[in-house]
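Notebook, student rotation project (T.W.).
Task set for the rotation: take a protein with a known small-molecule partner, predict the structure of the complex, and write up what can be learned from the model alone. Partner molecule chosen: pyridoxal-5'-phosphate. Sequence and SMILES entered below by T.W., checked by me.
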Amino acid sequence: MSAPLVFEHRANPAPLPAEERARVLAAPGFGRHFTDHMVRATWTAEDGWHDARVEAYGPLQLDPSAAVLHYAQEVFEGLKAYRWEDGSVWSFRPRANAARLARSARRLALPELSEADFLASLHALVEADAAWVPSGGETSLYLRPFMFASEAFLGVRAAARVDYLVIASPAGSYFTGGLKPVSIWLSRDHARAAPGGLGAAKTGGNYAASLLPQQQAAEHGCEQVCFLDAAERTWVEELGGMNVYFVHADGTLVTPALTGTILEGVTRDAILQLAGEVGLRPVERRVSVQEWKDGAASGEITEVFACGTAAVVTPIGRLVDGEEEVVPRGGAEAGEVTERIRAALLDVQHGRAQDRHGWMHRLL
Ligand SMILES: *Cc1c(COP(=O)(O)O)cnc(C)c1O
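Predicted structure of the complex:
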Protein backbone atom coordinates (compact mmCIF):
# COMPACT_ATOMS: atom_id res chain seq x y z
CA MET A 1 0.00 0.00 0.00
CA SER A 2 1.27 3.42 -0.92
CA ALA A 3 0.70 6.43 1.32
CA PRO A 4 -2.67 8.14 0.86
CA LEU A 5 -2.64 11.02 -1.61
CA VAL A 6 -2.85 14.55 -0.27
CA PHE A 7 -4.40 16.92 -2.80
CA GLU A 8 -2.50 20.20 -2.64
CA HIS A 9 -4.83 23.16 -3.00
CA ARG A 10 -3.76 25.63 -5.69
CA ALA A 11 -6.62 28.12 -5.76
CA ASN A 12 -7.87 29.41 -9.10
CA PRO A 13 -6.64 33.04 -9.16
CA ALA A 14 -9.59 34.06 -11.36
CA PRO A 15 -12.73 32.19 -10.32
CA LEU A 16 -16.00 33.02 -12.06
CA PRO A 17 -17.57 36.10 -10.35
CA ALA A 18 -20.41 35.21 -7.99
CA GLU A 19 -23.11 36.88 -10.13
CA GLU A 20 -22.05 34.89 -13.20
CA ARG A 21 -21.94 31.68 -11.18
CA ALA A 22 -25.45 32.41 -9.92
CA ARG A 23 -26.60 32.83 -13.52
CA VAL A 24 -25.12 29.45 -14.46
CA LEU A 25 -26.65 27.74 -11.42
CA ALA A 26 -30.07 29.15 -12.25
CA ALA A 27 -30.17 27.15 -15.51
CA PRO A 28 -27.21 24.77 -15.64
CA GLY A 29 -28.48 22.24 -18.20
CA PHE A 30 -26.21 19.19 -18.26
CA GLY A 31 -22.46 18.98 -18.85
CA ARG A 32 -22.04 22.45 -20.34
CA HIS A 33 -20.64 24.47 -17.47
CA PHE A 34 -17.72 23.54 -15.25
CA THR A 35 -16.59 24.71 -11.85
CA ASP A 36 -13.51 26.80 -11.04
CA HIS A 37 -11.29 23.86 -10.13
CA MET A 38 -10.33 20.35 -11.12
CA VAL A 39 -8.47 17.57 -9.38
CA ARG A 40 -5.43 16.07 -10.97
CA ALA A 41 -2.89 13.36 -10.10
CA THR A 42 -0.28 11.59 -12.17
CA TRP A 43 0.85 7.98 -12.14
CA THR A 44 4.08 6.66 -13.52
CA ALA A 45 5.27 3.07 -13.54
CA GLU A 46 8.33 4.28 -11.64
CA ASP A 47 6.74 6.42 -8.92
CA GLY A 48 3.13 5.31 -8.68
CA TRP A 49 0.53 8.03 -7.97
CA HIS A 50 1.97 11.45 -7.15
CA ASP A 51 1.62 15.19 -7.71
CA ALA A 52 -1.99 15.22 -6.47
CA ARG A 53 -3.52 18.68 -6.53
CA VAL A 54 -6.64 20.77 -6.91
CA GLU A 55 -5.98 23.48 -9.47
CA ALA A 56 -7.75 25.93 -11.78
CA TYR A 57 -10.06 24.24 -14.29
CA GLY A 58 -8.61 24.60 -17.76
CA PRO A 59 -7.34 22.98 -20.95
CA LEU A 60 -4.82 20.15 -20.69
CA GLN A 61 -1.57 20.11 -22.52
CA LEU A 62 -1.22 16.71 -24.19
CA ASP A 63 1.48 15.41 -26.45
CA PRO A 64 -0.11 14.53 -29.83
CA SER A 65 1.28 11.02 -29.41
CA ALA A 66 -0.45 10.57 -26.01
CA ALA A 67 -1.60 6.94 -26.07
CA VAL A 68 -5.22 7.69 -25.16
CA LEU A 69 -5.70 9.64 -28.40
CA HIS A 70 -4.70 6.59 -30.45
CA TYR A 71 -5.65 3.50 -28.47
CA ALA A 72 -8.46 4.75 -26.21
CA GLN A 73 -6.92 3.55 -22.95
CA GLU A 74 -9.22 5.43 -20.57
CA VAL A 75 -11.95 4.86 -17.99
CA PHE A 76 -14.38 7.16 -16.22
CA GLU A 77 -17.01 7.45 -13.51
CA GLY A 78 -20.08 9.58 -12.90
CA LEU A 79 -21.73 10.49 -9.61
CA LYS A 80 -23.42 13.46 -8.00
CA ALA A 81 -23.08 15.70 -4.96
CA TYR A 82 -26.41 16.80 -3.47
CA ARG A 83 -27.00 19.80 -1.21
CA TRP A 84 -29.46 18.99 1.53
CA GLU A 85 -31.85 21.48 3.00
CA ASP A 86 -29.55 22.06 6.03
CA GLY A 87 -26.72 23.10 3.68
CA SER A 88 -24.67 19.89 4.03
CA VAL A 89 -23.39 18.16 0.87
CA TRP A 90 -23.56 14.42 0.26
CA SER A 91 -22.74 11.87 -2.40
CA PHE A 92 -24.54 8.63 -3.15
CA ARG A 93 -22.59 5.36 -2.73
CA PRO A 94 -19.20 6.78 -3.81
CA ARG A 95 -17.48 3.59 -2.62
CA ALA A 96 -19.37 1.68 -5.32
CA ASN A 97 -17.98 4.13 -7.89
CA ALA A 98 -14.48 3.69 -6.43
CA ALA A 99 -14.77 -0.09 -6.76
CA ARG A 100 -16.12 0.14 -10.30
CA LEU A 101 -13.36 2.55 -11.34
CA ALA A 102 -10.83 0.04 -10.03
CA ARG A 103 -12.50 -2.81 -11.97
CA SER A 104 -12.67 -0.71 -15.14
CA ALA A 105 -9.02 0.32 -14.71
CA ARG A 106 -7.93 -3.31 -14.32
CA ARG A 107 -9.70 -4.28 -17.56
CA LEU A 108 -8.09 -1.39 -19.46
CA ALA A 109 -4.63 -2.15 -17.99
CA LEU A 110 -4.64 1.17 -16.14
CA PRO A 111 -3.33 1.59 -12.57
CA GLU A 112 -5.84 1.33 -9.76
CA LEU A 113 -6.64 4.25 -7.52
CA SER A 114 -7.44 3.21 -3.94
CA GLU A 115 -10.90 3.81 -2.50
CA ALA A 116 -9.37 6.24 0.01
CA ASP A 117 -7.66 8.26 -2.73
CA PHE A 118 -10.84 8.27 -4.85
CA LEU A 119 -12.91 9.57 -1.93
CA ALA A 120 -10.20 12.11 -1.03
CA SER A 121 -10.28 13.42 -4.61
CA LEU A 122 -14.05 14.04 -4.40
CA HIS A 123 -13.72 15.73 -1.02
CA ALA A 124 -10.92 17.97 -2.31
CA LEU A 125 -12.87 19.16 -5.35
CA VAL A 126 -16.21 19.67 -3.62
CA GLU A 127 -14.48 21.58 -0.82
CA ALA A 128 -12.77 23.88 -3.34
CA ASP A 129 -15.97 24.40 -5.33
CA ALA A 130 -18.54 24.26 -2.51
CA ALA A 131 -20.27 27.38 -3.88
CA TRP A 132 -21.01 25.44 -7.07
CA VAL A 133 -23.19 22.80 -5.42
CA PRO A 134 -26.70 24.00 -6.30
CA SER A 135 -29.61 23.74 -3.91
CA GLY A 136 -33.29 23.11 -4.40
CA GLY A 137 -35.37 20.79 -6.55
CA GLU A 138 -33.50 17.93 -8.13
CA THR A 139 -30.33 19.91 -8.72
CA SER A 140 -26.88 18.51 -8.02
CA LEU A 141 -23.21 18.87 -8.85
CA TYR A 142 -22.26 16.13 -11.32
CA LEU A 143 -18.78 14.74 -10.64
CA ARG A 144 -16.80 13.19 -13.46
CA PRO A 145 -13.64 11.31 -12.38
CA PHE A 146 -11.58 9.90 -15.27
CA MET A 147 -8.22 8.35 -15.97
CA PHE A 148 -6.31 8.11 -19.23
CA ALA A 149 -3.01 7.04 -20.81
CA SER A 150 -0.97 10.25 -21.15
CA GLU A 151 2.36 8.68 -22.09
CA ALA A 152 3.76 10.06 -25.34
CA PHE A 153 4.36 6.78 -27.15
CA LEU A 154 2.80 5.12 -30.19
CA GLY A 155 3.85 1.58 -29.29
CA VAL A 156 0.96 -0.66 -28.34
CA ARG A 157 1.24 -1.54 -24.68
CA ALA A 158 -0.20 -0.33 -21.39
CA ALA A 159 1.00 3.24 -20.83
CA ALA A 160 3.69 3.92 -18.25
CA ARG A 161 2.24 7.38 -17.56
CA VAL A 162 -1.39 7.98 -16.67
CA ASP A 163 -3.37 11.00 -15.49
CA TYR A 164 -6.39 10.99 -13.18
CA LEU A 165 -8.73 13.98 -13.07
CA VAL A 166 -12.02 14.95 -11.55
CA ILE A 167 -14.11 17.72 -13.06
CA ALA A 168 -17.50 18.94 -11.86
CA SER A 169 -20.54 20.34 -13.62
CA PRO A 170 -23.71 21.73 -12.04
CA ALA A 171 -26.82 19.83 -13.14
CA GLY A 172 -30.43 20.99 -13.13
CA SER A 173 -33.49 18.81 -12.95
CA TYR A 174 -33.29 16.39 -15.83
CA PHE A 175 -37.00 16.62 -16.37
CA THR A 176 -38.73 19.94 -16.15
CA GLY A 177 -42.49 19.81 -15.96
CA GLY A 178 -43.01 16.17 -15.02
CA LEU A 179 -41.55 12.86 -16.11
CA LYS A 180 -41.42 12.54 -19.87
CA PRO A 181 -41.27 8.98 -21.23
CA VAL A 182 -38.62 8.39 -23.90
CA SER A 183 -38.85 6.36 -27.09
CA ILE A 184 -36.28 3.64 -27.62
CA TRP A 185 -34.87 2.39 -30.92
CA LEU A 186 -33.88 -1.28 -30.95
CA SER A 187 -30.50 -1.61 -32.65
CA ARG A 188 -30.54 -4.70 -34.90
CA ASP A 189 -27.37 -3.86 -36.85
CA HIS A 190 -24.93 -2.99 -34.09
CA ALA A 191 -23.82 -4.25 -30.71
CA ARG A 192 -22.45 -2.22 -27.81
CA ALA A 193 -20.23 -4.89 -26.32
CA ALA A 194 -19.27 -8.50 -27.02
CA PRO A 195 -18.43 -11.40 -24.67
CA GLY A 196 -14.87 -10.95 -23.44
CA GLY A 197 -14.86 -7.29 -24.50
CA LEU A 198 -15.23 -4.06 -22.55
CA GLY A 199 -18.97 -4.05 -21.80
CA ALA A 200 -18.58 -4.25 -18.03
CA ALA A 201 -16.00 -1.44 -17.95
CA LYS A 202 -17.01 2.21 -17.92
CA THR A 203 -14.84 3.28 -20.82
CA GLY A 204 -15.21 5.76 -23.67
CA GLY A 205 -14.92 3.09 -26.36
CA ASN A 206 -18.31 1.66 -25.42
CA TYR A 207 -19.83 5.09 -25.89
CA ALA A 208 -18.06 5.53 -29.22
CA ALA A 209 -19.65 2.23 -30.32
CA SER A 210 -23.08 3.53 -29.33
CA LEU A 211 -22.98 6.85 -31.22
CA LEU A 212 -23.85 5.64 -34.73
CA PRO A 213 -26.79 3.53 -33.46
CA GLN A 214 -27.77 6.58 -31.39
CA GLN A 215 -27.88 8.65 -34.60
CA GLN A 216 -30.02 5.97 -36.20
CA ALA A 217 -32.34 6.11 -33.20
CA ALA A 218 -32.72 9.86 -33.71
CA GLU A 219 -33.45 9.33 -37.41
CA HIS A 220 -36.34 7.11 -36.33
CA GLY A 221 -37.67 9.66 -33.87
CA CYS A 222 -36.25 7.97 -30.77
CA GLU A 223 -34.24 9.52 -27.93
CA GLN A 224 -32.29 6.43 -26.93
CA VAL A 225 -31.05 3.15 -28.35
CA CYS A 226 -31.44 -0.32 -26.83
CA PHE A 227 -28.76 -2.96 -27.43
CA LEU A 228 -29.15 -6.71 -27.66
CA ASP A 229 -26.49 -9.26 -26.75
CA ALA A 230 -23.86 -9.54 -29.48
CA ALA A 231 -23.79 -13.35 -29.67
CA GLU A 232 -27.46 -14.32 -30.10
CA ARG A 233 -29.07 -10.94 -30.81
CA THR A 234 -31.91 -12.10 -28.60
CA TRP A 235 -31.42 -10.78 -25.09
CA VAL A 236 -31.99 -7.22 -23.96
CA GLU A 237 -28.79 -5.75 -22.51
CA GLU A 238 -29.10 -2.02 -21.83
CA LEU A 239 -29.25 1.42 -23.40
CA GLY A 240 -26.14 3.36 -24.45
CA GLY A 241 -25.64 4.63 -20.90
CA MET A 242 -28.52 3.34 -18.77
CA ASN A 243 -29.70 -0.02 -17.44
CA VAL A 244 -33.27 -1.24 -17.95
CA TYR A 245 -36.05 -2.56 -15.72
CA PHE A 246 -39.38 -4.26 -16.45
CA VAL A 247 -42.32 -3.96 -14.04
CA HIS A 248 -44.50 -7.09 -14.18
CA ALA A 249 -48.15 -7.40 -13.29
CA ASP A 250 -47.29 -10.19 -10.82
CA GLY A 251 -45.28 -7.76 -8.67
CA THR A 252 -41.82 -8.72 -9.89
CA LEU A 253 -39.28 -6.14 -10.98
CA VAL A 254 -37.05 -7.70 -13.60
CA THR A 255 -33.68 -6.46 -14.86
CA PRO A 256 -31.28 -8.24 -17.23
CA ALA A 257 -28.73 -10.29 -15.28
CA LEU A 258 -25.11 -9.14 -15.43
CA THR A 259 -23.38 -11.17 -18.11
CA GLY A 260 -20.05 -9.38 -18.44
CA THR A 261 -21.34 -7.31 -21.36
CA ILE A 262 -23.68 -5.13 -19.27
CA LEU A 263 -22.40 -2.21 -17.22
CA GLU A 264 -23.18 -2.70 -13.53
CA GLY A 265 -24.97 0.53 -12.70
CA VAL A 266 -24.93 1.85 -9.14
CA THR A 267 -28.53 3.00 -9.71
CA ARG A 268 -29.47 -0.47 -11.02
CA ASP A 269 -28.04 -2.04 -7.88
CA ALA A 270 -29.75 0.46 -5.57
CA ILE A 271 -33.12 -0.30 -7.20
CA LEU A 272 -32.59 -4.03 -6.64
CA GLN A 273 -32.15 -3.21 -2.95
CA LEU A 274 -35.05 -0.73 -2.84
CA ALA A 275 -37.58 -2.92 -4.61
CA GLY A 276 -38.79 -4.65 -1.47
CA GLU A 277 -39.51 -1.28 0.18
CA VAL A 278 -41.96 -0.38 -2.58
CA GLY A 279 -43.62 -3.80 -2.49
CA LEU A 280 -41.88 -5.44 -5.45
CA ARG A 281 -39.84 -8.62 -5.78
CA PRO A 282 -36.55 -7.96 -7.61
CA VAL A 283 -35.37 -10.55 -10.15
CA GLU A 284 -32.18 -10.64 -12.23
CA ARG A 285 -32.47 -12.87 -15.27
CA ARG A 286 -32.28 -12.86 -19.03
CA VAL A 287 -35.03 -10.95 -20.83
CA SER A 288 -35.60 -11.50 -24.56
CA VAL A 289 -37.03 -8.84 -26.89
CA GLN A 290 -39.80 -11.30 -27.63
CA GLU A 291 -40.73 -11.39 -23.93
CA TRP A 292 -40.81 -7.58 -23.93
CA LYS A 293 -43.14 -7.54 -26.96
CA ASP A 294 -45.39 -10.34 -25.72
CA GLY A 295 -45.48 -8.95 -22.18
CA ALA A 296 -46.42 -5.47 -23.35
CA ALA A 297 -49.19 -6.91 -25.55
CA SER A 298 -50.64 -9.24 -22.90
CA GLY A 299 -50.38 -6.77 -20.02
CA GLU A 300 -47.88 -8.96 -18.15
CA ILE A 301 -45.29 -6.15 -18.47
CA THR A 302 -46.94 -2.99 -17.21
CA GLU A 303 -44.05 -0.51 -17.20
CA VAL A 304 -40.50 -0.28 -18.53
CA PHE A 305 -37.90 2.20 -17.35
CA ALA A 306 -34.22 3.03 -17.70
CA CYS A 307 -31.94 4.06 -14.85
CA GLY A 308 -28.58 5.74 -14.31
CA THR A 309 -26.97 8.51 -12.30
CA ALA A 310 -27.66 11.36 -14.73
CA ALA A 311 -31.41 10.92 -15.25
CA VAL A 312 -32.05 8.68 -12.17
CA VAL A 313 -35.14 6.87 -13.50
CA THR A 314 -36.54 7.49 -16.99
CA PRO A 315 -39.82 5.93 -18.14
CA ILE A 316 -39.68 4.15 -21.49
CA GLY A 317 -42.85 4.88 -23.40
CA ARG A 318 -42.24 3.07 -26.69
CA LEU A 319 -39.88 0.52 -28.17
CA VAL A 320 -39.41 0.83 -31.92
CA ASP A 321 -38.14 -2.28 -33.74
CA GLY A 322 -38.01 -1.52 -37.44
CA GLU A 323 -41.60 -0.98 -38.51
CA GLU A 324 -42.97 -2.42 -35.29
CA GLU A 325 -43.94 -0.33 -32.24
CA VAL A 326 -44.23 -1.74 -28.76
CA VAL A 327 -46.22 0.21 -26.17
CA PRO A 328 -47.38 -1.19 -22.82
CA ARG A 329 -51.14 -1.80 -22.73
CA GLY A 330 -51.52 0.95 -20.14
CA GLY A 331 -50.14 3.43 -22.69
CA ALA A 332 -46.91 5.34 -23.11
CA GLU A 333 -47.34 7.56 -20.03
CA ALA A 334 -44.99 7.32 -17.05
CA GLY A 335 -46.19 4.46 -14.85
CA GLU A 336 -47.03 4.63 -11.20
CA VAL A 337 -44.35 2.12 -10.10
CA THR A 338 -41.68 3.96 -12.08
CA GLU A 339 -42.67 7.21 -10.36
CA ARG A 340 -42.59 5.54 -6.94
CA ILE A 341 -39.09 4.10 -7.43
CA ARG A 342 -37.81 7.38 -8.79
CA ALA A 343 -39.21 9.29 -5.81
CA ALA A 344 -37.83 6.76 -3.31
CA LEU A 345 -34.31 7.13 -4.73
CA LEU A 346 -34.45 10.92 -5.00
CA ASP A 347 -35.76 11.25 -1.46
CA VAL A 348 -32.75 9.36 -0.06
CA GLN A 349 -30.29 11.24 -2.28
CA HIS A 350 -31.67 14.64 -1.30
CA GLY A 351 -31.93 13.79 2.39
CA ARG A 352 -35.74 13.78 2.52
CA ALA A 353 -36.03 10.11 3.50
CA GLN A 354 -34.21 7.90 5.94
CA ASP A 355 -31.06 6.33 4.51
CA ARG A 356 -31.69 2.72 5.58
CA HIS A 357 -28.82 1.27 3.58
CA GLY A 358 -26.02 3.63 4.60
CA TRP A 359 -25.76 4.87 1.02
CA MET A 360 -25.11 8.54 1.67
CA HIS A 361 -21.56 9.79 2.23
CA ARG A 362 -21.05 13.28 3.58
CA LEU A 363 -18.70 15.48 1.59
CA LEU A 364 -19.20 18.82 3.34
C1 LIG B 1 -22.69 4.60 -16.26
C2 LIG B 1 -23.50 3.63 -17.05
C3 LIG B 1 -24.73 3.13 -16.58
C4 LIG B 1 -25.41 3.61 -15.31
O1 LIG B 1 -24.60 3.44 -14.19
P1 LIG B 1 -24.91 4.31 -12.88
O2 LIG B 1 -23.82 3.90 -11.95
O3 LIG B 1 -26.24 3.92 -12.41
O4 LIG B 1 -24.83 5.73 -13.28
C5 LIG B 1 -25.37 2.18 -17.37
N1 LIG B 1 -24.86 1.78 -18.54
C6 LIG B 1 -23.69 2.25 -19.01
C7 LIG B 1 -23.19 1.76 -20.31
C8 LIG B 1 -22.97 3.19 -18.29
O5 LIG B 1 -21.83 3.66 -18.78
